[in-house]
């Protein structure tokens, strides 16, 4: 985790007074709405294994980013980013983290654990706070500590009640929390398209190599199912990049408090899909665990709003 400690503090903080406009709201809601229906999309790719889907996702995301950089004529900026070894190292680490996050999530969808995935993204804000305290050395506030303790209690309730550790939820929360921290540190030094492209480029050789090998062995699904399925696999690049770019637009136009509340759209939608569409089992102990997590998020949200109001008054 040494590459996360390269800078003494978060490199970029968006001002609270930043304006909130309709384009920013629409972009942020659309991004999180698209992420919210990911379980339905990845369910269509059920013939492929999680590793194969992630490999295609990396490869086709790189193709999308190359096209995007070419269209906007930003190859000069790409060269300046690649010349910065520290930046490339951080983006490589971010690429590994987000790929791990994708792998865990796609596995969750493939094994009918969409609700576990939703729980992971509900827990993610708590992990982000924990990383800010441990890695960035931010001073812990009482509300943050209370929220973290409630979150720990939620995990313990689920572990004791179900008799197993919710590793999918914890893995998703930890990987995306660390990815967010890495991107927070370098996001202002590389545009979303270039940053995502470098992340994909670093992992592309392994991904493309894996795809070629399984296709030659007859175990791949890109050339053996149907042209329509091949096209569906190719859309993983667009499906990955579009929400990220929409999110970048929203993040540039909204204040942090508004953005923080909108992020709950994704796990709420995924939770509803898991329960209402895929009819995943929800025992009482899981409801109790979710209730505790939601209580922790209420505490965090209240603390965020209170701080924003105090800054506004100042």
Short description:
With 314 residues, the chain is an all-alpha fold. It is built from 14 helices and no strands.
Explain what this protein looks like in three dimensions.
The chain is mostly helical and 314 residues long. It has 14 helices and no strands. The protein is globular and about 55 Å long. Mean pLDDT is 83; it is low at 1-20.
Task: Give me the number of helical elements.
Answer: 14
Poorly predicted tracts of residues: 1-20
- Classify the secondary structure makeup into a structural class: mainly alpha
Helix percentage = over 70%
Averaged pLDDT: 83
Number of strands: 0
Provide the β-strand percentage band: under 5%
- Helix and strand pattern: HHHHHHHHHHHHHH
Radius of gyration: 20 Å
Taking the sheet with the most strands, its summary is:
none
How widely separated are the two ends? 37 Å
Estimate the global geometry from the Cα principal axes.
globular
């Amino acid at each position: 985790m040494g590459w996360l400690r390269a800078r003494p503090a978060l490199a970029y903080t968006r001002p609270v007074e930043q304006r909130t406009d309709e384009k920013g709201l629409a972009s942020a809601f659309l991004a999180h709405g698209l992420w919210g229906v990911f379980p339905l999309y990845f369910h269509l790719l059920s013939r492929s294994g999680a590793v194969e889907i992630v490999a295609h996702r990396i490869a086709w995301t790189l193709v999308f980013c190359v096209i995007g950089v070419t269209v906007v004529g930003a190859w000069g900026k790409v060269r300046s980013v690649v010349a910065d070894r520290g930046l490339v190292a951080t983006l490589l680490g971010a690429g590994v983290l987000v790929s791990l996050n994708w792998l865990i999530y796609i596995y969750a969808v493939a094994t009918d654990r969409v609700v576990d995935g939703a729980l992971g993204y509900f827990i993610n804000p708590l992990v982000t706070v924990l990383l800010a305290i441990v890695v960035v050395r931010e001073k812990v506030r009482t509300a943050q500590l209370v929220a973290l303790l409630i979150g720990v209690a939620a995990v313990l309730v689920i572990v004791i009640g179900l008799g197993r550790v919710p590793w999918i939820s914890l893995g998703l929360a930890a990987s995306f929390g660390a990815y967010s921290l890495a991107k927070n540190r370098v996001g202002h030094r590389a545009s979303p398209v270039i940053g995502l492209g470098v992340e994909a480029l670093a992992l592309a050789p392994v991904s493309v190599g894996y795809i070629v090998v399984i296709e030659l062995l007859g175990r791949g699904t890109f050339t053996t199912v149907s042209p329509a399925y091949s096209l569906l696999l190719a859309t993983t690049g667009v499906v990955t990049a579009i929400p990220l770019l929409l999110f970048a637009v929203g993040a540039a136009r909204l204040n942090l408090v508004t953005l923080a509340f909108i992020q709950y759209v994704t796990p709420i939608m995924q939770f509803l899909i898991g329960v209402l569409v895929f009819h995943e089992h929800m025992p009482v102990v899981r409801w109790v665990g979710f209730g505790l997590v939601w209580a922790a998020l209420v505490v965090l949200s209240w603390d965020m709003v209170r701080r924003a109001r105090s800054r506004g008054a100042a």
